Amino acid sequence: MAIKLTTYINQKVSIAPLVIFRIAFGALMFISISRFILKGWVYNMYVAPKMFFPFYGFEWVKPLPEAGMYIVFGALLFASLGILLGALYRFCAVVFFILFTYVELIDKTNYLNHYYFISLISFILVFLPCAKNFSFDNKFFKRTELTNIPHFFVLLPQLQMFLVYFFAGVAKINYDWLFEAQPLKMWLPAFSHYSLIGDFMEKDWVAYVFSWFGCIYDLLIGFFLFNRRTVNVAYIFVIIFHAATALFFNIGMFPYIMMTITIIFFREEFHIAAVRQLKALTGYKDETGSAYSNGLNRPLKFIFAAYFILQFVLPFRYALYDGKLFWTEQGYRFSWRVMLMEKAGTAFFYVKDNKSGREVEVDNKKYLTYMQEKMMATQPDMMVDYAKFLKQEFVKSGFTDPTVRAQSFVTLNGSGSREFIDSQIDLSAQSNSFLKNKDWVKSY
Amino acid sequence: MNYKLFIAILVICLVSCRKKGQEEEPVDPYDKQALLTNMADNVILPNYNAFKLSLDSLINAYNTFKTSELQSDYQIVKQKLHAACVNYQRISPYEFGPAETVIVRMNFNVFPTDTAQIKSNISSGVYTLDAASNLDAKGFPSLDYLFYGNNQSESAMIQLFVNSANRKQYVTDLLNDMSVKLNTVINGWNTSYHNTFVNSLGTDVGSSIGFLVNQLNFELDYLKNAKIGTPLGKKTLGIAIPDKCEAYYGAQSLQYAYETLLAIENVYLGRSKSGINGEGFDDYLIHLRAEYNGVSLNDAINNQFAVCKTKLSAIANPLSSQVTANPGVVDAAYVELVKLLVLLKTDMPSNLGVIITYQDGDGD
After folding, report:
1. Which residues 172-211 of B have a C-beta within 8 angstroms of A?
2. What is the pLDDT of residues B119-176, one digit of tens each?
3. CATH 2.40.10.220 assigned to B30-352
4. Where are chain A's structural domains?
5. Which chain A positions have a beta carbon within 8 Å of B17's beta carbon?
6. Which of A30, A346, B67, B361 is the most exposed place for a label (fewest CB within 10 A)?
7. Which of A172, A193, A201 to mutate to test the interface with B (most CBs of B within 10 A)?
8. pLDDT tens figures, A244-256
9. What secondary structure does DSSP assign to B64-81, as a single string?
């Protein structure tokens, strides 16, 4: 078994899939980041807010002043191009990974599974020899084109994508999704005005079909993509699935990113032909010069063994906490729980001056952006962050030993809103440590 | 074997889910265009037109008073001012499309008004009403101050106009500013926006339903906070601030608050200017079979509207004295408005698939 695995990962395969992967990823990131900037989101998300919601343990990650944030996004554009062209590839991959992850760590309001995915893929890209064929680097440094690499390198992004799909499927195995067809039953009717399909959008059976198809698709697609004989048919399903998500959900570039980079699973003949065509198209002449090793070493294997073990464990950490996962959201993030629930809430915060014993109601709009207020209203850890921020603000404005409480009403999958947290506890004194259970969230 | 088992499970699930005794699934999908058409043709435009009529009538009455300087004419102006302000409350929740471009709320109803700024504008006679610094020196709150003043007799107030051409001109300019802006809005609806509005059938940010739901909630939040909560001292350690009431000088805060609630209800119900309950969010929620902890969500919302009306009516006039004399009664109304806000801001959008935000972004 161990020997078979070693043979499997050391097997010589073509480098072409990685070359195509690099080009596709670089191009998609260039488009996504340009779109992000053009939509004004750099300002909305990283300049306009008066406070930011840090991830636990990453409170030291702070946004830069406005110009700095734009420089970061500019650098991300250059790094995307570097990855695309294979120009100073490794440097660009490192820069991309660090800056992208930095931006995502600033404020968990903006956490999206697909941003997390991009951080992970760019981390993997740092270690892949993607630019050792058909690249500017080969031209600059007069390096021989590398044609074969250990299978290990192609497997890394494949395995990552497999995990995303598989865990997204596992997450859908829950009562609400399968047996109530929620939240799709609530979301689909909003599209009843679509031509052709609109008439079906309010039918319960359609919501069930979508739910079950989505769940089975996610669970199985990775296996079919890995299989040489089924990959082509599987890819048709990938297109259908992501086209449907693009049609129904406001998820920006993500469907297109997935559709495009899933081609890493295609047979290598496809990639070899594609690279050959691209070379012909650009008039690229293979370099001959100094050669280099394939780059696979023991530490690398250990790094990625640990990496994937962590990836496997994270989605299950929720089991360590009390309460219904969708309600408390303890251990919800970083687990590929995508479009799983319809949750909305309204939260009222009160700050008490403990000298006079009197209380004020906070105008959330004064401190939070609409997006932040909306996300905070359903996520207990964000309420704690906000309460700690309010405490500081009110100390500054002369309150004595202020305490912060909140009354919050949340609806989950059309349940009817109900009180979400204990409205008497001092939220500013609570901890977001993942070692601590948030027992002040009311049971569902 | 596996797929047979799977299909068997699937069939069992679907059958068992149908058996829940839910109301029958409607045959046709909800006609969102019918809702939007009713909103535009029977709710929004008639209310804009009524507001325009009352504003024009106020301007005429004021022009009469300007020349006659008679107390009887002054009293007519005050009546017309009140009528126009009532009609204003009814259009206040429509802050999207042309109204959003004109920024109606900020130009018509920022209170408390800045009396020092008004005095300085009048004494200098030089001002740009569109300047940001004048947003709280214009609109209805300024007119309220200029016509009702602060503890002055009516004849004393009239003398202020008689003795100051600048004051007369200032009111003319304020009225004109409102009239021009309102005409721009109505014109926008009558030209292209009507068509845009009734044909935007999505529920996302920037769709007509998204606008209606968000603005309805903005208005309710404004009612709860600015009109009731702030004067009651919710932001000031429970210490009431009577002069932060809307229409503080004319002491009509409560009626305007009540009108605001009705205006919100008009949008919710799709209730026409003439009082006919047409296609609205109530019908949409019923169609979607939206539930709220065991009852229909529409029933819960209607019930809460009724409770809020009762509690607002229970407050004696004027609000500015009640926030200190009977804060408990005011607070009771406040508490009910909070509950209504939760229903309209959390439960309703969730069931409609509307995102409560004005900010565009990706989801996942």
Report:
1. 201-204
2. 999 999 999 999 999 999 999 999 999 999 877 899 999 999 999 999 999 999 999 9
3. no
4. 2-169+262-318, 342-429
5. 179-181, 204, 208
6. B67
7. A193
8. 999 888 888 999 9
9. HHHHH--HHHHHHHHHHH
